[in-house]
Write a structure and sequence with these properties.
Chain B: Belongs to the CDC50/LEM3 family. Chain B: It is a multi-pass membrane protein. The structure holds 2 protein chains of 2 kinds. By secondary structure, chain A is α+β, with helices and mostly antiparallel strands. Chain A folds into 6 domains: 79 residues, no CATH class; 125 residues, Calcium-transporting ATPase, cytoplasmic transduction domain A (Distorted Sandwich), CATH 2.70.150.10; 79 residues; 207 residues, HAD superfamily/HAD-like (Rossmann fold, 3-Layer(aba) Sandwich), CATH 3.40.50.1000; 248 residues, Calcium-transporting ATPase, cytoplasmic domain N (3-Layer(aba) Sandwich); 244 residues, no CATH class. Chain A is built from 41 helices and 33 strands. In chain A, the strands form 6 sheets. A 9-stranded mixed beta sheet of chain A has the order 14-33-32-31-15-27-30-29-28, with helices on both faces. In chain A, helix 12 packs across helix 21 and helix 14 crosses helix 15. Chain B has 2 domains: 61 residues; 219 residues. The two termini of chain B are 34 Å apart. In chain B, strands 1-11-3-9-8 form a 5-stranded antiparallel beta sheet. In chain B, strands 2-10-6-7 form a 4-stranded antiparallel beta sheet, with no helix packed on it. A two-stranded antiparallel ribbon of chain B has the order 4-5. In chain B, helix 2 runs antiparallel to helix 9. Classes of the chains: A alpha+beta, B alpha+beta. At the A-B interface, helix 6, helix 8, helix 11, helix 34 and helix 35 of A face helix 1, helix 2, strand 3, helix 4 and helix 5 of B.
Chain lengths: 1198, 349
């Protein structure tokens, strides 16, 4: 606890010190301590004490920049990149005589690149600003001094103001609910903007404030926690009329949530502006960088080293040559350079210094090796790629009206490299819309439906033995009945003739059945919503399980129809008379559900004035709380629960207990005391208090709800595993449930060897009974270690004898307790090694923290790319930990989505996201980067070779402006087109041949060989271009009129060759030509000539060596064009031949697949005698072949 | 892209409220572009394509090579290196001293015409190991000064040949200063061969880069004399030798036009050249050559282009052949699925 306290001591120290003063001397010990220092003077913001606190107003600004700091701040952001700093330094140095070319030609591209990025930032920020202005100027009614409500703008609100918010308006700040249009002070709130949950939440005011008249003279002091980002917690007290009242999240109305179904509310402003919970939450998602980008940085460093090496080489030569310009006896050698009267940059006497300065010059000159536009281009490309992901119709979910969202564009290409998927189960693989299918009451199982899992299991077994299961016909008849019976109800899939239609009253244990359903109808936090026209009742529940329970009890005759602050009302069938009666239960306390408690209870007083504790919870916590006399049906119920779990159902144990008045009174006092506390350990104290009454329960039975598998999940998992992606399921479910779900979604397959790691062994359990914790831990550790070793030896044995092409596959199942030990530092390596050797891994009973830990282990242990997918708040850790987090925007709110990098509506869209978009994006970015380096090396090295012929003096081979336009105008658009549009194979084929995905997983397209290969290609091209050009364009005339080649003609010809070569290289290395590619590639070349004409027609003082060069000199010369064709074809030849050889001998996956698409001719089967006749098209036969291979593999395992 | 709960909520507050949410459904609009289904040509390297590409290249390149070679064969070129021979034998131990010394440096050379040369015959001088592309050298000029008398004083780039005693040099800079000053007088059978020195510069240079009202001033008046002097009465735009020289060469070996002979030379003609060997290439051991050459439609004599074309064409033909044989000997079925097997490690590009 001390440790927890210490947490508060941070920045808030100063802050709290300041506001501690006015409240010093108060007797309330917890309030005013660090982290709990806020004081709100309700309805009295002008009181001197309140002014002294000086809380900030309600003005919000979410912009990254302000008008004043935009330029410096965004520039700073830009220059955090090494490459940009380099270019900035170059730009500064370019004003000195060191520069090999003119300063504007250096500055222009840099300004262009920086400017483009800044404009993008600016536009984004401007949009945010407009939203801020809109929000700040919204109107709200505030209680003025004159005793009436007057209108004011949101930004003018102050802490302590009393505001009135009307129906369907947003709350302007975090408010404390005082009263509402309802008498009992309740209101309904929609929190969609906070957590994405669309269901209505019930809030209620304190009873003492809910009287509307009291508002006028309301004077109270609220003391509460400091601003924090926890949406679901609030700790505070209200001091009103000399008494302390505890405040809870139930009274808090958060900014940006909306008032629903309530005409108006009154509230006190507690947190304003940036102190509100929603603003405290508004942090950017953790920025992740893709592996490719990290590798790219390394390549940039390689390029920098190349740059330094060649600059250094050049300088050494330059130094030597310069030294020789003045012979030892003072004679000038190259007299035309006047070495006798020179500047320091060329001085022969100080050749070393001159060489040093030359080194700087060379660094600038060969700067073209570093692609200045690479980062910008990649950013543009990624944004466009994200748009494609967002626009994909195949990933749009009709029912929820949700398209896929790439929330960050940084990771597109990472999607193509996923090696391991870590998936949540509930809501991710399943729909998370619960259906009440079975229940077990007093030891009797009810409900005759068949679950999907059961059917899947049966189907799998059916493959081996004919269907002859005993109760098979039973389920068939049910289906018939169901088809004929009434309309289906969402959330309710229960049928049992003994129970439905009021038949339960004739059951022998009708009283227990009644109690059972009463618990379901009362013990929850759902809110009924009565449709005024049809009188139909729908429910707003916090979790789908709860909704299923309320619906089930409604369908079975316990209709919950009204909830007030203190009462719950039901329409009930009396089991004695069979008549419908209304019963009102006085709701005394709700002991809420939490993941640590794993149960919830309510305490009610029934119309007979009995005190009842109704409780439901997980079997693991409930059975130990049963009373001795409440265990009558324990054995049967446990048996049923096990069976339900095997059928993939979620179970809860239902219990109740009668509480006598005295016990209740004592307990209530203790409980209320815990509740009124305002301190960090309040929650723990409340839990402990609740614990005290939730005991000696009487078992009623258990429920089983089915969480249906989402559409297409088995197919998707199958495709992904065909693509070589390993899938781990991390679930909170019981082992049996998890295994069966695993089978249902084809994660585990028949014939797979199952390795089960568990601690449910007799010796460990025996030790546990003794209660020696150390011994248990030690034994568990040893046991896990042993099991891991055994698993390893199994897999080794399998790989040992697997020369025969079909290695055995393994599935690893591990439960939460074992996982704790397996994740221990000493064992994690072995665990990981075993897990890697298995095709699927299922971790059951894992906590959110374990999920994150497993993710981290896989990520750092294997170094491979991990993708985590989940839908709930409990997956947030996992999503943030993984390389890529994918959120399912499903029923459990938006928290996972908020923490994710990509959001999709259904699990099955993952297939398309990875296999199509991931593959494409990976491919595009990889090729794009390689190409970028290629084109810059090609260009940069021609400069270097030229230096060798210009005595390394630093004179570039080309005109300054040709060079500065190279990256930005003549070569960038085709690369961007490549990065955005290129496809090796169509989406259909990507999905059809999942193996293609391995190109990304094995990182074939961005392996060092390939990168260096491209670089080498660039250097070879530059050599061919340079040496062929200077050899052909030697000293002789190049025109009929006897003119000879000079600097400008050679430069233009060589530069044209470079432009043609790199653009044609693009044309032969991409696989996908739409009009866009044609436009950009040929357009770039065309633009170069257009540029030459325009630039060449400018006055010679500006165009210098480019003056009329195309029109007058090189254009009319056939010799120049012949040279160009020769050089270009020669420069492309090595790559083209390499590709031809590669396709012939070592084709890549996509080559083969593209060919398969192309070859339409029928092909005769030669492989097997039993092969289907030869008329089948290749694809079909290929698939058949694969299927057969799979089958034979399967057979050999069984 | 950044998640900003507050602001995004503010945005939805306006639009999302209208309960016509169904109407503006978030379904992405269909277009071939957004769904990435644009009609496209997807070339693949089938054996047929590979072989025919190589064949096409060779079929185009080999004739082009032959044509270029023929064009080059048509050109008659006489090259005479004279830098060594034009130094009297006694002075050859210290050529630099000789060339820097005073006196008449006339030198007679005899050239034989081996093949009929049709006019116009171009006279070039060729220098080797002369770095006209040195950065210091190239930058040492003032384009605006050459263009107009107004900018006479723009000489900052011209150091150290910028001014003489405070008076600007026109044309300034190292390039102009080092102007080539060997002269050639040609005669055939004792009749003088006229060498036309007009029309050897680019038209654009004469008209746009060198002004017709700019006259040489203070040229070669400095403490160190470089190359040729200029007639101060002739405007720069008419000083074609200077214009040619100032169009700097790209490589250390270069030719520059000296003039044109506008009569045909017959086979067996003997040409006597009387040259003034003034230009100092000896201190950096540069060669000097006199070149007489005709031109074809492709320019001067250059076998390299033709040979290069033939070579590349030949290589392509060979590759085409090699691939044909490979495909015949060891065919790989198109789209052979065995290449799609697992754990294969396809490498390279």
């Amino acid at each position: 606890m001390a440790g927890e306290r210490r947490k508060g001591v941070r920045l808030s120290k100063l802050y709290s010190f300041k506001c501690f003063k006015p409240s010093s001397g108060e007797d309330h010990s917890h309030i005013g301590s660090r982290g709990y220092s806020r004081v709100v003077f309700c309805n009295d913001p002008d009181t001197p004490e309140a002014l002294e606190l000086n809380y900030k107003g309600n003005y919000v600004s979410t912009t990254k920049y302000t008008a004043a700091n935009f330029i410096p701040k965004s520039l700073f952001e830009q220059f955090r990149r090494v490459a940009n700093i380099y270019f900035l330094v170059v730009a500064f140095v370019s004003f000195s005589p060191l520069a090999p070319y003119t300063a504007p030609s250096v500055l222009a591209p840099l300004l262009f690149v920086i400017g483009a990025t800044m404009v993008k930032e600016g536009v984004e920020d401007w949009r945010r600003r407009k939203q801020d202005i809109e929000a700040n100027n919204r109107k709200v009614q505030v209680f003025g001094k004159n005793g009436t409500f007057g209108e004011t703008k949101w930004k003018n609100l102050r802490v302590g103001d009393i505001v009135k918010v009307h129906k369907d308006d947003y709350f302007p700040a975090d408010l404390l609910l005082l009263s509402s249009s309802y008498e009992d002070g309740i209101c309904y709130v929609e929190t969609m903007n906070l957590d994405g949950e669309t269901n209505l939440k019930l809030k209620h005011a304190l009873e003492i404030t809910s009287d509307e008249e009291s508002i006028k003279n309301f004077r109270g002091v609220i003391k509460c926690e400091d601003p924090n980002e926890h949406l679901y917690s609030f700790v505070g007290t209200l001091q009103f009329q000399g008494k302390q009242y505890p405040l809870s999240p139930q009274q808090m109305l958060l900014r940006d949530s909306k008032l629903k179904n309530t005409d108006y509310i009154h509230g006190v402003v507690v947190f304003t502006g940036h102190d509100t919970k929603v603003m405290q939450n508004a942090t950017d998602p953790p920025s992740k960088r893709s592996k490719i980008e990290k590798k790219m940085d390394k390549i940039i460093y390689i390029l920098f080293s190349i740059l330094i090496v060649i600059s250094f080489t050049g300088s050494v030569f330059f130094g030597i040559i310069t030294r020789r310009d003045l012979s030892d006896d003072g004679k000038l050698t190259r007299w035309y350079l006047r070495p006798d009267e020179t500047t320091v940059f060329y001085e022969p006497q100080r050749a070393v210094l001159a060489a040093f300065f030359h080194f700087l010059t060379a660094l600038m000159l060969y700067g073209y090796l570093i692609p200045i536009s690479l980062y910008v281009s990649i950013e543009v490309v990624k944004v466009l790629q994200s748009i494609f992901i967002n626009q994909d119709q195949e990933m749009y979910h009709e029912e929820t009206d949700r398209p896929a969202r790439a929330r960050t564009s940084n990771l597109n290409e990472e999607l193509g490299q996923v090696d391991t998927i870590l998936s949540d189960k509930t809501g991710t693989l399943t729909c998370n819309s619960m259906e009440f299918v079975k229940c077990s009451i007093a030891g009797t199982a009810y409900g005759r439906g068949m679950t999907e899992v059961e059917m899947a299991l049966r189907k799998q077994k059916g493959m081996m033995r004919p269907q002859e299961e005993a109760d098979n016909d039973d389920s068939l008849s049910i289906k018939e009945i169901k088809a004929s019976s009434t309309k289906s109800v969402k959330g309710f899939n229960f049928w049992d003739e003994r129970i439905v239609d009021g038949e339960w009253i004739n059951q022998p244990n009708a009283e227990l059945i009644q109690k059972f359903f009463r618990v379901l109808a009362i013990c929850h936090t759902a809110v009924p919503d009565v449709n005024s026209d049809t009188r139909e009742i729908t429910y707003e529940a916090e979790s789908p399980d709860e909704a299923a329970f309320v619906i089930a009890s409604r369908e079975l005759g316990f209709e919950f129809f009204e909830r007030s602050q203190t009462n719950i009302s039901l329409h009930e069938i009396d089991h004695m008379t069979g008549e419908k009666v209304d019963r009102v239960y006085e709701l005394l306390h709700v002991l809420e559900f939490s993941s640590s408690r794993k149960r919830m209870s309510v305490i009610v007083r029934n119309p007979e004035n009995q005190l009842l504790l109704l409780s439901k919870g997980a079997d693991s916590v409930m059975f130990e709380r049963l009373a001795k006399h409440g265990r009558q049906n324990e054995r049967e119920t446990k048996e049923h629960i096990k069976r339900y779990a095997e059928a993939g159902l979620r179970t809860l144990v239902i219990t109740y207990r009668e509480v006598d008045e005295d016990e209740y009174r004592i307990w209530e006092e203790e409980f209320l005391k815990a509740k009124t506390l305002v301190s960090e350990d309040r929650d723990a104290l409340i839990d402990a208090a609740a614990d005290n009454i939730e005991k000696d329960l009487i078992l009623l039975g258990s429920t089983a709800v089915e969480d249906k598998l989402q559409k297409g999940v088995p197919d998707c998992i199958d495709k992904l595993s065909q693509a070589g992606v390993k899938i781990w399921v991390l679930t909170g479910d019981k082992t049996e449930t998890a295994i069966n779900i695993g089978y249902a979604c084809s994660l585990l397959r028949e014939g797979m060897k199952k390795i089960l790691i568990t601690l449910d062994s007799p010796d460990v359990e025996a030790l546990e009974k003794q209660g020696d914790k150390d011994a248990v831990a030690k034994a568990s550790f040893q046991s896990i270690k042993k099991q891991l070793r055994e698993g390893m030896s199994q897999t080794f044995a399998a790989t040992g004898n697997s020369a025969n092409e079909n290695p055995e596959t393994f599935g690893l199942v591990i439960d939460g307790k074992s996982l704790t030990f397996a994740l221990d530092k000493k064992l994690e390596k072995e665990f990981l090694e075993l897990a890697i050797r298995c095709n699927s891994v299922i971790c059951c009973r894992s906590s959110p923290k374990q999920k994150a830990l497993v993710t981290r282990l896989v990520k750092s242990g294997t170094g491979r790319t991990t993708l985590a997918i989940g839908d709930g708040a409990n997956d947030v850790g996992m999503l943030q930990e993984a390389d890529i987090g994918v959120g399912i925007s499903g029923a459990e709110g938006m928290q996972a989505v908020m923490a994710s990098d990509f959001a999709i509506a259904q699990f099955r869209f993952l297939e398309r996201l990875l296999l199509v978009h991931g593959h494409w994006c990976y491919r595009r970015i990889a090729i794009m980067i390689c190409y970028f380096f290629y084109k810059n090396l090609t260009f940069g090295f021609t400069l270097f070779w030229y230096e060798a012929y210009a005595s390394f003096s630093g004179k570039p081979a080309y005109n300054d402006w040709y060079m500065s336009c190279y990256n930005v105008f003549f070569t960038s658009l085709p690369v961007i087109a490549l990065g955005v549009f290129d496809q090796d194979v169509s989406a259909r084929l990507c999905l059809k041949y999942p193996i293609l995905y391995q190109e990304g997983v094995q990182n074939i397209l961005f392996s060092w060989e390939r990168i260096l290969g491209w670089m080498l290609n660039g250097i070879i091209s530059s050599m061919i271009i340079f040496f062929l050009t200077i050899k052909t364009m030697a000293a002789q005339a190049f025109q009929k009129d006897g003119q000879v080649v000079d600097y400008s003609v050679l430069g233009v010809t060589m530069y044209s060759s470079v432009v043609w070569t790199v653009n044609c290289q693009m044309a032969i290395s991409i696989n996908y030509f739409t009009w866009i590619q044609h436009c950009f590639i040929w357009g770039s070349i065309g633009f170069w000539y257009l540029f030459l004409v325009v630039y060449g027609s400018l006055p010679p003082t500006f165009s210098t060596t480019a003056f009329q060069v195309l029109v007058e000199t090189s254009g009319p010369s056939p010799f120049c064009w012949l040279t160009l064709v020769l050089v270009m074809v020669s420069a492309l030849l090595p790559y083209f031949s390499y590709r031809a050889f590669q396709i012939k001998f070592r084709p890549m996956y996509h080559d083969i697949i593209v060919e398969q698409r192309r070859t339409e001719r029928p092909e005769t089967a030669t492989r097997t005698t039993s092969a289907v006749s030869g008329e089948l098209p290749v694809q079909v036969e290929f698939t058949l072949h694969h299927l057969k291979a799979n089958l034979s593999r399967r057979d050999s395992w069984n | 892209m950044s998640s900003n709960t507050a602001s995004s909520s503010a945005a939805t507050a306006g639009s999302g409220d209208s309960s016509a949410a169904r109407k503006n459904s978030k379904r992405p609009k269909y277009s071939k572009f957004t769904q990435q289904e644009l009609p496209a040509c997807k070339p693949i390297l089938t054996p047929g394509w590979v072989i025919s590409t190589f064949l096409i290249v060779s079929v185009i390149f080999i004739p082009l090579g032959v044509i270029s070679l023929f064009a080059s064969q048509d050109v008659v070129e006489i090259v005479d290196r004279y830098d060594n021979d034009c130094i009297p034998a006694p002075a050859r131990t210290n050529k630099v001293a000789y060339i820097q010394g005073g006196g008449d440096k006339a030198c007679n050379r005899t050239l034989r015409v081996t093949k009929r040369m049709k006019q116009p015959i171009y006279v070039y001088y060729q220098l080797e190991n002369f770095y006209q592309n040195h950065r210091r050298y190239v930058k040492s000029r003032s384009d605006s000064q050459l263009r107009s008398p107004k900018y006479e004083n723009q000489i900052s780039a011209c150091k150290p040949e910028d001014d003489v005693g405070g008076q600007p040099i026109v044309p300034c800079g190292l390039v102009a200063w080092s102007l080539f000053n060997d002269t050639y007088t040609l005669s055939r059978n004792n009749t003088r061969l006229a060498v036309n020195k007009k029309g050897i510069a680019w038209k654009s240079d004469k008209e746009h880069k060198f002004g017709n009202r700019v006259f040489p001033k203070n040229f070669q008046k400095g403490n160190l004399t470089g190359g040729a002097s200029l007639d101060p009465d002739i405007p720069l735009s008419e000083q074609e030798d200077l214009i040619v020289w100032m169009r700097t060469a790209a490589l250390p070996t270069f030719r520059k036009l000296y003039g044109k002979i506008e009569t045909d030379l017959e086979m067996g003609d003997t040409i006597h050249v009387t040259l003034q060997n003034n230009y100092n290439t000896y201190s950096f051991s540069g060669k000097k050559k006199l070149v007489l050459s005709t031109t074809s439609w492709l320019g001067g004599k250059n076998d390299f282009l033709g040979i290069a074309y033939l070579t590349v064409g030949g290589i392509c033909f060979f590759l085409a052949l090699a691939f044909t044989i490979m495909y015949l000997v060891k065919p790989r079925r198109l789209g052979d699925p065995s290449y799609l097997s697992w754990n294969r490690n396809p490498g390279g590009r």
